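USER: Fancy drafting a protein?

ASSISTANT:
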Amino acid sequence: MNKKQKIINEKESKHEVTSLGEFSESAYLNYSMYVILDRALPSITDGLKPVQRRIIYAMDQLGLTSQSKFKKSARTIGDVLGKYHPHGDSACYEAMVMLAQGFSYNYPLVEGQGNWGTQDDPKSFAAMRYTESRLTKYSDLFLSDIEKNTVSWSKNFDGTLLEPKHLPSKIPNILINGSSGIAVGMSTDIPSHNIGEIIDATTHLIDKPKSSISDLLKIIKGPDFPTEGEIISKESDLNGIYNFGTGNIKLRATYFVEGKNIVIKSIPYQSHTTKIIEQIQDQIANKKIIFIDNISDDSDQEHPVRIIIKIKGRSHSVDDIMSHLFFSTDLEKNLRVNLNIIGTDNKPSVKNIREILTEWVKFRLHSVKNKLQWELDKIQERIHILEAYVKVYKYLDKIIKLIRTEDNPKKKIISLCKLTEKQYEAIINMRIRSLAKLQEESVLNELKKLKNEEKSITLLLSSSNRLKTYLKKELNEIKKDFGRSRKTSINDQDTHKSNEIKVSVSISDLTVIISKNGWIKFHKGHNVDITKLDFKTGDSYYQHLHIKSNNTLAFFDQHGMIYNMASDNYQVSRGQGEPLSKYFKLLDGTQMIGMVNISEKLSVLNCSSMGYGFICVHDEMFVKNKKGKKLINVKKSNAIKPMNVDLDNDKYYVIITSENYMLIEKLSEIPIMPRGKGVKLINIPKTSDETIVYIGVLRQDQVLEFSYTSRKSRVMDHAVLQNYIMKRTRRGKKIEKKFLLEKGKTTYNIK
């Protein structure tokens, strides 16, 4: 080996060799953390995402306060992109628009002039070159103390400027305005709340730190959305959300009767008037409802929502009509809640209401303490200088004589007046006019005032109880300035049942059955004996559903496609039914893997055979054409049978592989997505042929039954199931041998 080759080998040996898999995993993890921490999830401190925080800070730096003149929004976006947030201008501007929309936030942080979108079409806003903006008075609560050592700072993306890591918010904005976002492997959906209730709960917690969640919920009644509406969730459901940080809220429109018309005056949060009207008009056109003569949209600036429903005849009561519309349209909606927040430790986690408020109070007390210490330091600096001025007046003649007679009077003046270096510099730089008698009195008055302030702040800093009192007073003043009554009413009595009632034409019970080879047939009623059904030779039963004749069905295939079948295709079958290819444009060899009733408004857990999955809400499962649409990105794997999910009650998912590995994890760990690949539900080695054979959902009180071809069965009880609960990214645990003794096919059933 020559000398040159030896040097090359030594250099190469210094580099660490990493496999492609390890590098990819590390890169993906880094990207995930970047998206979670720097883009998608809000901070508990100020309730803002990084882009929102940067917009507010940039506007403050531009002098766009609530008292200033409006400036073009393009100016703000230019500063945000150029100084702090080097991403797309359209996405950044859209984030700014949301901060200005009164129907998106209880308290907008940006005040806009021009077209900033409407409740019916939030994305109809004008381009940033046409709109103007400034900060609102509410934003002052985030920025007023920013220069007083209340926040930590970090370098911007190019290291030329500093930006705040968070804003010194004076209120728990994370609960007042709420937030939503989708990260990599997690999401957040935090509803907005009434500022008065949140402040009252916070001050209560300051007074009584050991208060329970139930104590706080006596004050916090529930979410309070800017678009009003009525919450009809049960009290127990709301309590579950605030205790565990996840759940669902049922929200419905409010209305009143005006003559022979029903007037809808508010709709659920993030619902759209146009879509609701289209849903009702479709039912009228298809003769699904006969009690509505006409529907019109009379919304205007004064009444953001005003839908007029003209009733035909008097055969149905208003309550019956509204019950049907709540069931069949977006006049009633389920909103998911996931209190997933980046805490003060810079880690994301799902927190309950007490944890959120406790952590925020701790953060705010720290900010207040830093602010007061900063003010105390400034006061003491000024007192130090004023005391030097007082000494000047006392020794004025001697000081003047020393200055005039001595070549270097500094030492003698410092010795004479007992000054510090800083005091000496201050008196040397005094103007002659400051030596006037009136100026001396002014100095003495200012000195007296500052010493009183010094004493007051010192007392505050010396006592944690005084700091808490200071914080409570600050919060109560904010409540006085910004407090208002609730917009969203709460009614857990369910005065209108959300059920389809027989006010529509020819609604009947049906049983729909699909076979393994993709044939479908319909039978009247729900009392169908599945065991006596007849199928073609080589075909057999696969799945059945009990539906109403006006329901919409969704079908899923192994390629990850979803298709819809409308009720006008439902015909009671003769013989062995019809192939599904008659209704959909299917690729050759396509196999249907399952169906769900979209009209039940349940969510669906979708999963690939490689163990990736996500939850899709019913709104995202509507398809207009026969070709269907791509729902699951399965790549080289296949989609498996979808599973209906009740987000209100289902707590865990159970997943089993072909190698008999099983994993159980919280359902809340699975993100809600409209489509895509999803997240890893279980870790399956990439080099193996192992696949998913079963996925199900489990409630707190349910168990898992193993059934075998010998008609025997074994039940895995709660105590055993606990051993399989682990993080979704894990391999899972091998199923105990006593549940695998039988040879042949094993089926699984949640009981």
Q: What stands out?
A: The longest helix spans residues 353-394. The radius of gyration is 34 Å. The chain is about 30% helix and 20% strand. The chain has five domains: 1-32, 41-164, 254-330, 370-480, 509-750.
